[in-house]
Design brief:
Layout (H helix, E strand, L loop, with lengths): L4 H20 L3 H6 L10 E3 L6 H18 L2 E7 L8 H9 L14 E7 L4 E6 L20
Parallel strand pairs: 1-2, 2-3
Antiparallel strand pairs: 3-4
Length: 147
């Protein structure tokens, strides 16, 4: 097989072009780095390792009890950083998509995502419509506190 000397040059320029697009074009960065988003598989996804086991278990129990009672789904996520995303809101919206599966049941809008980013010292939430059977005290994180 003959390899052209141009193939390595073209490859390098493709990488440079992709990085320039990621830097210059808003919204392109999440597409470029979408595979870096963690998959959400449990009520508590402590990727930053900041929730002790006792509190993680308590959050897990509350989330599962809420789902059992109302059908609503609450997911808590901690991450070290939201990079390369521009801000916590953009990251939270992309994370809520959960690799195409979303959070909650499709068509019921019953999912809540709470995200804590340690490096940025930010929190964010994405809230689908909560069912009428949930009272505000059932979901204490209903209001997003952004610091």
């Amino acid at each position: 097989m003959v390899v052209s000397p141009w193939s390595s040059v073209v490859g390098r320029w493709s990488l440079v072009a992709a990085l320039c697009l990621a830097w210059l074009v808003p919204g392109f960065t999440p597409i470029l780095f979408a595979q870096q988003l963690p998959e959400l598989t449990e009520p508590v996804n402590d990727f930053a390792k900041v929730i002790d086991s006792e509190n993680a278990a308590a959050i897990d129990r509350m989330s599962r009890a809420l789902k059992q009672k109302t059908g609503d789904v609450v997911i808590v996520v901690t991450v070290n950083t939201i990079e390369p995303f521009a801000d916590i809101n953009e990251y939270t919206v992309r994370l809520f998509e959960n690799h195409g599966r979303g959070i909650g049941e499709r068509g019921k809008d019953n999912g809540v995502l709470i995200v804590l980013a340690m490096k940025e010292r930010r929190s964010g939430s994405n809230l689908a419509t909560v069912s009428k059977s949930s009272s505000p005290t059932d979901i204490p994180a209903r209001r997003s506190a952004r610091s």
